[in-house]
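Data card: per-record layout.
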Amino acid sequence: MDPNPTGVIDWGEFEAAWTVADVIQWLSSVGHSSLADTFHDNDIDGGVLMSLTDDDLLTMGIDSSPTRESIMTQVTYWSYFVFLSPIFLLCLSVPLFVLLMSVPEIGLSMV
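The structure for this 111-residue chain is written out next.
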């Protein structure tokens, strides 16, 4: 994955870079290693993972509603984390910069 000129990694490229093996490793990390074969047999890579629906999981043979809900929650959490973490860091950095710049020993005094 190459950052674009602004240094931001393209979301579509990030999704595409996640292989089936990466998804299976992620599945294990969120407590669903028993579904590794199911995800492998259905060729679920990063792009597919991000577009899965509850109905897709049901079609794949994942009959347990709590399991499907858990997977969907984890996918949603993961996508927000990856997508929003740079925005969150930027939101934190601006007030921190202003605060640091107002301390005379560190930066410019705002007074």
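Known properties of this structure: The domain at 11-84 is CATH 1.10.150.50 (DNA polymerase; domain 1). The radius of gyration is 20 Å.

See the next section for split statistics.
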